[in-house]
Amino acid sequence: MARMSPNVAKKSLGLQKNGKLSQCPDMPNCVCTAHKEDKAHIAKPMTFNGSPAEAKTCLKEILAKKEGYTIVEEKDNYLRVEVVSGIFKFVDDVEFHFQPENKEIHFRSASRLGYWDIGANRKRMKQLKQLFEATGI
Question: From CA 49, how far away is CA 2, in angstroms rounded?
Answer without folding.
Answer: 40
